[in-house]
Amino acid sequence: xxxxxxxxxxxxxxxxxxxxxxxxxxxxxxxxxxxxxxxxxxxxxxxxxxxxxxxxxxxxxxxxxxxxxxxxxxxxxxxxxxxxxxxxxxxxxxxxxxxxxxxxxxxxxxxxxxxxxxxxxxxxxxxxxxxxxxxxxxxxxxxxxxxxxxxxxxxxxxxxxxxxxxxxxxxxxxxxxxxxxxxxxxxx
Length: 188
Hints:
Structural class: alpha/beta
Strand content: 15-25%
CATH topology: Rossmann fold
Number of strands: 7
Distance between the termini: 31 Å
Largest sheet: 7 strands, mixed
CATH architecture: 3-Layer(aba) Sandwich
Strand order of the largest sheet: 2-3-4-1-5-7-6
Shape: globular
Helix content: 25-40%
Number of helices: 6
Oligomer: single chain
């Protein structure tokens, strides 16, 4: 079976260490763990191929910026003749406590512009999501500013600490299915 694993984020060094790039970080770690060494530019994304058990994985990091990342996802899906049910999207989520990971099948975009774009392009939100909790902004800080600011110090350590869990959640989905992953990661 072929599965597409998409990490959502923004391209460029100025965004590399931001909460909004949690999806990119998780997919990068997944690629490292699966010994992927070659990424190519394809369909508006950085794309790599890996094997996990019997599955062929297509790892993708759209380079179109978050707000239009769905266009890249749709192109990759068309190219490999994939259905939404064959996709796992990893993304940041301000509605989850910082440091948590949750797995979900389907649903709306919850104000996340990357998910909004993917849903618009696919005509459906019927794909698996690995949600990386980054918490809410403090005080009256704008949510967009919060997720796009570089993280440093303890905040960076907390983000770095949860990325391996997100990568492992993706593998759990692939190996044991989404229902098992939801029981495992949504338990607390």
